[in-house]
Amino acid sequence: MNCRALVVALGILGPLGGASPLTAQEKAIELTAGILGLGYTTCNGCNGVFELATGGANDGIFTGFGGGSVALGVYLSPEVAIEPTIAASVLSSGGETATILSLGVAVPYYFDKGWGRKGGYFAPKVTVNHASGGGQSSDQFAIGVGVGTKLALNDAAALRLQASFDYGFEGDFSATTSFGAFFGLSVFLK
Fold it and tell me: Do the beta carbons of residue 148 and residue 160 sit within 8 Å?
């Protein structure tokens, strides 16, 4: 990952490492893992790519939840959380393999005001993507939004359904547009 992308990622994730958000709230900390997802991504000058992912689903090929993803929701109030996400995907086509590592932060706003345990939400997000393959690597900054809902299973777990749109800015590679859907499991640690 080049220095510019690393600085952006640390700028996004750095404030989350401080004690204040974790110690200030007492009601909810959430861990989310993907189960199933699909995404369609297109870029300037390339063919679109459709992806169906299991075991750590994807809501957009370059952003948000990806194969092998995990998100940590830290609640600031009953309706707002900060949700850092890390995702890794491996794509293979025609004998070529590419690895994509994504670091992002979403800020979900929950309409139910119940510490994210159930109900609908709207989540703007930013992501830094690092792609490598074929002896080359490149970075991209992306913004997006997720709209979804959680269906409570019990006090400690919920199913999460989300649709998303993401736009990756032109940088080391072409600008991208991604649409996706995600199905995951959220577990509340507090």
Answer: yes
pTM: 0.77
Cβ atoms of 71 and 106 closer than 8 Å: yes
Token pair belonging to 70: 């995990």
| Calculated CA dihedral for residues 53, 16, 149, 102, nearest 10 degrees | -20
Pairing of strands 109-110, 119-133: antiparallel
Q: Identify the bridge partners of residue 185 per DSSP, sorted by sequence position.
A: 33, 159
Per-residue pLDDT tens listing for the chain (190 residues): 454 544 444 454 444 444 444 444 456 899 998 888 788 888 877 778 777 776 544 444 444 444 567 899 999 999 999 999 988 777 777 777 878 888 999 999 999 999 999 999 999 999 998 888 878 888 999 999 999 999 999 989 999 999 999 999 987 778 889 898 888 999 999 7
